[in-house]
Amino acid sequence: WVPGADWRHPTGPGSSIEGLEDHPVVQVATADAEAYAAWAGKRLPTEAEWEYAAWGGASGHEFAWGDELEPAGRHMANIWQGEFPHGNTAADGFLRTSPVGHYPPNGFGLSDMIGNVWEWTSDWYADRHVVEQHRDGTPKGCCAPRNPRGAALESSFDPAMPQIRIPRRVLKGGSHLCALSYCRRYRPAARHAQAIDRSTSRIGFRCVADA
After folding, report:
1. In angstroms, rounded to a whole number, what is the distance separating the alpha carbons of residues 111 and 60?
2. Distance CA 196, CA 189 (A)
3. For the segment 12-69, what is each residue's pLDDT rounded down to a tens digit?
4. Angle at Cα 200 formed by Cα 182 and Cα 32, nearest 5°?
C-alpha cells in the first residue's frame, strides 16, 4: 500500500503512466469507472454479461481457452507464475500489467477478459446468485438462473466486518496477481468481492454499449 497512488500515478506519487498508454487503467474505484462509462455513453457490464463475454462462445472448459492453463507451453493471459506471493518468475515477461491485446483474443474477439486486471461489474456481491422465485416464494428452477441479476445492496456488506458498512461489487477476470498456487481466480466462472471505495493496481474496468 502506497499513499498517494491514483490512476495517473499507479504505483505511488513518484510513478507515472508514461509508456503505459496501452495498458489497462488501474487505481479506479467504482465511482471512477461509472463516471467514465457515463461520459462515454456506455455502462459497466453485469456479472452475467461479463462472464458470457469472457467465455467467447466456448463455455464448458476450466479456462476461457480450454482445459490447459498453458497449452503447448503458451501463455494465454497475464497471471502470476511461481509461488505466490514471493516467487513471481515473470515467465510471461510481465511483473505487473501487460499491454491490452498482447494475448490472443477469445472467440468474440475480446482481449484480456482473463488476467491482467480484475474488472468492475455493476452487480452487488452476494455469496450466491439470486434465484428467481414464484409469487409463493418457491424457486422457479432447481439450478442457477440463465441470466442472473445482481444481489441487493444490503446483501453486499461483508458479514465478517459488520461494523464496516461499505457495499461490495463483483469483480471478474482475475489479475496479474492470480496464481495457480493460490487463488486460481483467472477462470471465467470465478468472482471476487470488492468494496466500492477501494482502488488498487490490480483493478480496472471495461464498458459495454447497449444496441
Report:
1. 19
2. 21
3. 999 999 999 999 999 999 999 999 999 999 999 999 999 999 999 998 899 999 999 9
4. 135
Cell of 175: 489479475
**Residue 121 · residue 127 · CB < 8 Å:** no
Beta bridge partners of 151: 124
Separation between Cα atoms, residue 120 and residue 177, nearest integer Å:
16
SS3 string of the chain? CCCCCECCECCCCCCCCCCCCCCCCCCCCHHHHHHHHHHCCCECCCHHHHHHHHHCCCCCCCECCECCCCHHHCCCCCCECCCCCCCCCCCCCCCCCCCCCCCCCCCCCCCCCCCCCEEEEEEECCCCCCCCECCCCCECCCCCCCCCCCECHHHHCCCCCCCCCCCEEEEECCCCCCECCCCCCCCCCCCEEEECCCCCCCEECCCECCC
| Burial degree of 77 (CB within 10 A; 0-12, 13-18, 19+) | buried
C-alpha cell recorded at residue 181 = 498456487
Which residue bears the cell 480450454? 66
* ∠ CA 193-197-198, rounded to 5°: 65
